[in-house]
Amino acid sequence: MKINILAIESSCDETSASVISDGKILNNIIATQSVHEKYGGVVPELASRAHQQHLIPVVDSALKGSGVSKRELSAVAFTKGPGLMGSLMVGVSFAKSFAYTLGIPLIEVNHMQAHILAHFIEEPHPKFPFICLTVSGGHTQLVLVKDYLDMEIIGETTDDAVGEAFDKTAKLLGLPYPGGPLIDKYAQKGNPNAFEFPISDIHALDFSFSGIKTAVLYFLRDRIKQNPDFIAENLSDICASVQYTLVKTLMQKLKKAAEIHGIQEIAIAGGVSANSGLREALEQTAKQSNWRTYVPKFEFCTDNAAMIAMAGHFKFLKGEFCGLDVVPEARMKL
Ligand code: KG4
Ligand code: ZN
User: Fold this and answer.
1) What are all long-range contacts of 33-41, with beta carbons under 8 Å and residues at least 24 apart?
2) Residues 6 or more apart from 226 whose CB is under 8 A from it?
């Protein structure tokens, strides 16, 4: 009999469902919430309400499109955390009642572990042990991945996530949320050395990104005093310089981690891995340092249920199920 798992992701502002059969992803349905755009960031209360509206149609569409019927499901996997409590609650409650009704087991998944396991959705797969730089709107982590479910955080941000730094800088520039992809777009036409921002190098393999936001804030305030049109006239150069600084900070620590652990299998995951500057820097360093690098397809980089399904599959094989008394964990550790 096949192992068929329905997976649910609802940790932030994407409602997603996916069906996986014997380790092969059959589909990955994602409903993005546009309601947050005008607020310049995710509004938690609106996010949970939108999950409630989207979840049933998204699950329905994932099941129908997969050709797997409810009765053929072996388990339900869901994101337990980390994430927004109200958003997680919608997915967790749904997964519990669905599994209970069908009399099948439940599998809790750590969202950050799932971002890394997205590398096993398609070939080529990284070989163990590898280092994964997970960069999203909520997290910045360097993870030593020893096996599918055996991971160790070797570095992380002590304040803002790098995606947050992209988004907050974009906001200062008057760009809409999420600003990361827009900074990337303008950066491609700009000069990365036009302006200099500080690169923070804190303890060991940890990161700090709150300083750059403040540096950009003061820089813009001073320049706008001299020229009110400074942003409009220099947008591409500012974006390119900010992106250069953020990418350099990430690459410095990634190189250090690879050296310390003697590892040349390097992966990146999370929404910010879509960044063209980061991808370019990764390729360059790979050539210099003989790295083999792995970047998932964009659809599997940002929040999605296919990665939850993949993690669910590995946990199913190990018999790692949870009880109906499971509750979401907003600050769940890896
Ligand atoms: O993984 P993700 O979809 O959601 C979280 O779990 O946070 O990541 C979203 C983050 C946002 O901060 C967004 O601005 C950033 O990824 N992002 C980018 C790019 N595409 C998405 N940042 C920089 N350059 C991009 N091309
Ligand atoms: Zn994520």
Assistant:
1) 36/177, 37/176, 37/177, 39/177, 40/171, 40/176, 40/177, 41/167, 41/177
2) none
Please give the sequence-ordered ranges of beta strands (E in DSSP) within 100-185, or none if there are none.
106-110, 130-135, 140-147, 150-156
User: Minimum-distance ligand to the CA of 183?
Assistant: 1
We report the CATH number of the domain holding residue 93 as: 3.30.420.40
Residue whose CA lies nearest to ligand 1 atom number 11: 137
Both 278 and 305 in one domain: the answer is no
User: Which segments within 13-69 are labelled E, that is strand?
Assistant: 14-21, 24-32
Query: For residue 67, what are the CA distances in angstroms to 20, 26, 71, 73?
Result: 11, 9, 11, 11
Ligand 1 centre to CA of 267 (Å) is 16
Q: Give the closest residue to 268 by CA, choosing from 183, 147, 143, 180.
A: 143
Spatial contact of 220 and 172, defined as CB atoms under 8 Å apart = yes
* Residue in 153, 111, 149 with CA at minimum distance from that of residue 304: 111
Q: Is 280 helix (H, G, I), strand (E, B) or coil?
A: helix
Asked if residue 259 and residue 183 are part of one domain, the reply reads yes
Tell me the three state secondary structure of residue 325. coil
Distance, in Å, from the CA atom of 49 to the CA atom of 38, rounded to the nearest integer, reads 17
Number of domains in the chain: 2
Indicate the angle between helix axes 210-226 and 162-172, nearest 10 degrees: 10
Q: Does residue 76 contact residue 313 with C-beta atoms inside 8 Å?
A: no
Interval 267-310: pLDDT, tens = 999 999 999 999 999 999 999 999 999 999 999 999 999 999 99
Write the pLDDT tens digit of every residue in 240-277.
999 999 999 999 999 999 999 999 999 999 999 999 99
Best of 136, 239, 245, 276 for a ligand 1 pocket test (most atoms within 8 Å of beta carbon): 136
Q: What integer pLDDT is reported at residue 203 of this predicted model?
A: 81
Return the ligand 1 atom nearest residue 270 CA: 1
The whole domain housing 42 covers 4-116+301-317
One domain for residues 230 and 284: yes
Low-confidence ranges of the chain (pLDDT < 70): none
- pLDDT value, residue 174: 95
